[in-house]
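I am writing to request your help with a piece of structural work I have in hand. Thank you for your consideration; the sequence and its tokens are set out here:
=====
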Amino acid sequence: MSCSICGRGNCTSMFHSIEEQEKHEELFGEYEDMIDELKDRIKELEKENVIYWDIMTHEQRIEVTKE
């Protein structure tokens, strides 16, 4: 994974100053948390076979199930 602050592959956020880390957290922390929550929800839906990815087109498909 790349650094969440600068995006370089050979870096990590702890290599940046505390000031840089705090600034990044203020600007992007909330969004990163929301992205993580959405990724977790997608994984849950995949486990329930409600959502899956088309392997050939890499498009997201939603399967409608009747209850």
